[in-house]
């Protein structure tokens, strides 16, 4: 018995036990079972970059062992979204991949893009599970399903409103596929029996598929060159798991930007966000016109953040419209009802005074809390480090952006203790207020991205190039 046969044998036993322990009537009564399903196919086709990335959450696999056992599915999936993922794949097999249906549900509640349940689906019961825990689509593996079972599960999924990513490895599996119905095909570059990987499987099989089929290349993507290779074969998307899971680093914001030179250095280092402080008493104040001019030169992948301190709402809205900032960071004494904006994301800065955060976040419905240090009558950053143990406790409950005196000397300790969603860097990488030190910036990014490079360039591909590659390779030119 090879590994795949072992997995399927165990899966059949597992499903039979589940049917007894958790009746179908209980599964179908769950709240998520009746939610509106999102289209995975449509999100791949309309991906902002012209190329669909399905980013995967998994803790381990039989082929490589432990991938990342400690990551949180909610924060991981949110980072995937911020970096342009079109969809999230969640491994739910527990014995061999360390996944759970709870992982699936937590991801579903954390993101607003399609979620794929990736498992060894061999029974209709699992389709109901997928729907009940928030999946929009499921993986069907042609290699483990006879043609009639594959068609039955596909049809039943369709009746339940679920889409299917139908996976094949060998060209002999093509005869199982009904291309009148099955329009989303995954080509697995990993042999599930031997776990050997060959990206050229995508090339070999895609040439045998109809032109109107949406093809996702799966497994073995480890670099931007790999992405370009499968693009050249005509794939319209990829499913990436181990590479992303091993290479997660905090969301990075460089704040207090006052000039185009510093902004472009931060962009070159692949920061996730840059912050502009519109608080006039700050030594890093910038006026909206100057900020707008800088933002025009930033890549679309970088999020412009506006920092405000007790500004009137109409002033904030005018600056949003003038500059194009996408995140509003409220750093003053704003009340919960003052932190609601429809057109942008909102971060609320919190500054615990007495080493106690209890109640300080109550009532706020924001995208993240920026955890800063308190100094009386001083807003917009104090330059002092805060209570990281307190920040750690807060980060266990909320999405936290850690701020306050972070620099190349303390960033490793801060991140390892707090485990924040992101970090906000300002004075710790400056030569003087409002002027960043390029060497300190480079040092900080080297520390944060050492062995943790996200391959962000993968998420920003020319749609024209992809269209050209697909047309050329399908026609055999």
Could you please describe the fold and organization of this structure?
The protein has two domains: about 5-245, Aldolase class I (TIM Barrel, Alpha-Beta Barrel); about 250-450, TIM Barrel, CATH 3.20.20. The protein is elongated and about 70 Å long. A hairpin with a 2-residue loop joins strand 19 (about 430) and strand 20. Helix 4 (about 75-80) packs across helix 5 (about 100-110). It has helices spanning about 5-20, 25, 40-45, 75-80, 100-110, 125-130, 145-160, 200-205, 225-235, 240-245, 260-270, 290-295, 315-325, 390-395, 410-420, 440-450, 465-475, and strands at about 50-55, 60, 65, 85-90, 115-120, 135-140, 165-170, 185-190, 215-220, 235-240, 250-255, 275, 305-310, 325-330, 345-350, 370, 400, 420-425, 430, 435. An eight-stranded parallel barrel has the order 1-4-5-6-7-8-9-10, surrounded by six helices. Helices cover about 35% and strands about 20% of the residues. It is built from 17 helices and 20 strands. It starts with a helix and ends with a helix. The chain is α/β, with parallel strands linked by helices.
What percent of residues adopt helix (DSSP H or I)? 25-40%
Identify the quaternary structure here. Answer: single chain
Strand arrangement in the largest pleated sheet = 1-4-5-6-7-8-9-10
- The count of strands amounts to 20
Could you say which overall geometry the principal axes of the C-alpha atoms support? elongated
CATH class of the largest domain: Alpha Beta
* Sheet with most strands: 8 strands, parallel, barrel
Name the CATH architecture of the largest domain: Alpha-Beta Barrel
Q: Which regions have little confidence, pLDDT < 50, spanning 5+ residues? A: 451-477
**Percentage of residues in strands:** 15-25%
């Amino acid at each position: 018995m090879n590994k795949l046969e072992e997995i399927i044998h165990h899966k059949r036993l597992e499903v039979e036990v589940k049917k007894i322990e958790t009746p179908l009537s209980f599964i179908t009564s769950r709240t998520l079972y009746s939610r509106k399903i999102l289209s995975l196919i449509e999100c791949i086709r309309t991906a902002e970059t012209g190329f669909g990335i399905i980013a995967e959450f998994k803790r381990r696999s039989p082929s490589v062992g432990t991938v990342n056992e400690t990551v949180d599915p909610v924060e991981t999936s949110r980072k995937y979204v911020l970096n342009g993922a079109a969809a999230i794949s969640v491994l739910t097999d527990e014995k061999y991949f360390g996944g759970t249906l709870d992982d699936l549900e937590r991801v579903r509640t954390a993101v607003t893009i399609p979620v794929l349940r990736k498992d060894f689906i061999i029974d209709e019961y699992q389709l109901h599970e997928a729907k009940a825990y928030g999946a929009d689509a499921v993986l069907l593996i042609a290699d483990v399903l006879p043609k009639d079972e594959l068609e039955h599960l596909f049809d039943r999924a369709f009746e339940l409103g679920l889409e299917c990513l139908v996976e094949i490895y060998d060209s002999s599996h093509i005869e199982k596929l009904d291309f009148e119905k099955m329009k989303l095909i995954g080509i697995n570059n990993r042999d599930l029996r031997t776990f050997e990987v060959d990206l050229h499987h995508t090339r070999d099989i895609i040439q045998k598929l109809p032109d109107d089929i949406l093809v996702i290349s799966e497994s073995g993507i480890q670099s931007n060159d790999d992405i370009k290779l499968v693009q050249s074969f005509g794939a319209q998307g990829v499913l990436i798991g181990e590479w992303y899971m091993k290479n997660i680093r905090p969301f990075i914001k460089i704040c207090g930007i006052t000039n185009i030179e510093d902004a472009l250095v931060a962009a070159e280092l692949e920061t996730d966000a840059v912050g502009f402080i519109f608080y006039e008493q700050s030594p890093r104040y910038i006026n909206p016109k100057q900020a707008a001019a800088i933002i025009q030169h930033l890549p679309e992948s970088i999020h412009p953040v506006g920092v405000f301190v007790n500004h009137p709402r109409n002033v904030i809205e005018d600056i949003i419209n003038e500059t194009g900032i996408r995140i509003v960071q409220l750093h003053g004494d704003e009340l919960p009802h003052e932190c609601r904006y429809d057109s942008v994301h909102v971060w609320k800065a919190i500054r615990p005074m007495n080493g106690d955060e209890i109640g300080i976040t109550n009532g706020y419905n924001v995208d993240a809390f920026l955890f800063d240090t308190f100094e009386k009558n001083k807003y917009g950053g104090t330059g002092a480090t805060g209570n990281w143990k307190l920040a750690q406790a807060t980060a266990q409950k909320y999405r936290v952006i850690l701020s306050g005196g972070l620099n190349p000397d303390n960033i490793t300790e801060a991140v390892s203790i707090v485990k924040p969603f992101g970090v906000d860097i300002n004075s710790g990488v400056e030569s003087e207020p409002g002027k960043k030190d390029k060497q300190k910036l480079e040092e900080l990014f080297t520390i944060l991205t050492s062995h943790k490079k996200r391959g962000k360039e993968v998420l920003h591909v020319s749609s024209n190039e992809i269209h050209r590659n697909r047309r050329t390779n399908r026609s055999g030119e």
